[in-house]
Amino acid sequence: GEIILALRQLDLLQKTIVIYTSDHGELAMEHRQFYKMSMYEASAHVPLLIMGPGIQANLQVSNVVSLVDIYPTMLDIAGIPLPQNLSGYSLLPLSSETLKDEDKFKNLHPPWILSEFHGCNVNASTYMLRTNQWKYVAYSDGASELPQLFDLSSDPDELTNIATKFPEITFSLDQKLRSIINYPKVSASVHQYNKEQFIKWKQSVGQNYSNVIANLRWHQDWLKEPRKYESAIDQWLKKPHQSKKQ
């Protein structure tokens, strides 16, 4: 509100495009979870509002779009040609006052969005392919962990995983996901990187690494059974690394 008020007072509002969004949502005990780092809607679905000259007022676009679309949108607003290798798409045509037919929207942006997450607080790399109706979530190499499939049109709270109930849709979405990103290969690279970086860090702190971990973020569980977790790390480090050429 203060930004809009300042732009209006400076007589800049009519020639300024404002984009309002967020980097992530916030789980409030949906699915017995809090915080973020999840593909559930409470974490992954964020607001995106655009206003300004040339932007159609009160237009709600039903297409699924992504935060990676913001950068090409800003380039488009500035009149800068879009590089060929961008993952996102300009949203300016979707919100333009000159485009009235929503059916034409389908030709301006793919009918899906991709999201992936690799972090210290998850056990496996996670990948999401989202369409208007379906959300498909795959983990790790796609085989060691079962995927999830939700029909958001009938199950907006994502309470029922129907991946095994609709194997054809599950397979189709998985194939589409693999055509966009070779996620088993990416997951393997993440595992390799994690191990290599941990070994370097462990060597840098020496035998005192257990005490260092005890003072890091999320350390309460470590303090309860440090020997147990040290042993688990040792077993993980002893596993031979298997490099695959693809």
Distance N terminus to C terminus?
Answer: 52 Å
Number of strands: 8
Overall shape: globular
- CA radius of gyration is 22 Å
Pfam families: SGSH_C
Domain N-sulphoglucosamine sulphohydrolase C-terminal: 30-179
Protein name: Arylsulfatase K-like protein
Organism: Equus caballus
Features:
single chain; 246 residues; alpha+beta; Arylsulfatase, C-terminal domain; two-stranded antiparallel ribbon; 9 helices; 8 strands; Arylsulfatase K-like protein; Alkaline_phosphatase_core_sf; SGSH_C; GAG-degrading_sulfatase
Description:
The protein starts with a helix and ends in an 8-residue tail after the last helix. Among the domains are: about 110-180, Arylsulfatase, C-terminal domain (2-Layer Sandwich), CATH 3.30.1120.10; about 190-240, no CATH class. β6 (about 125-130) and β7 (about 135-140) form a beta hairpin. The protein is α+β, with helices and mostly antiparallel strands and about 250 residues long. About 15% of the residues are buried. The model has no long low-confidence stretch (mean pLDDT about 85). The strands form 3 sheets. Strands 5-6-7-8 form a 4-stranded antiparallel sheet, with helices on one face. A two-stranded antiparallel sheet has the order 1-4. The protein has 9 helices and 8 strands. InterPro entries: Alkaline_phosphatase_core_sf, GAG-degrading_sulfatase, SGSH_C. Pfam families: SGSH_C. This is Arylsulfatase K-like protein.
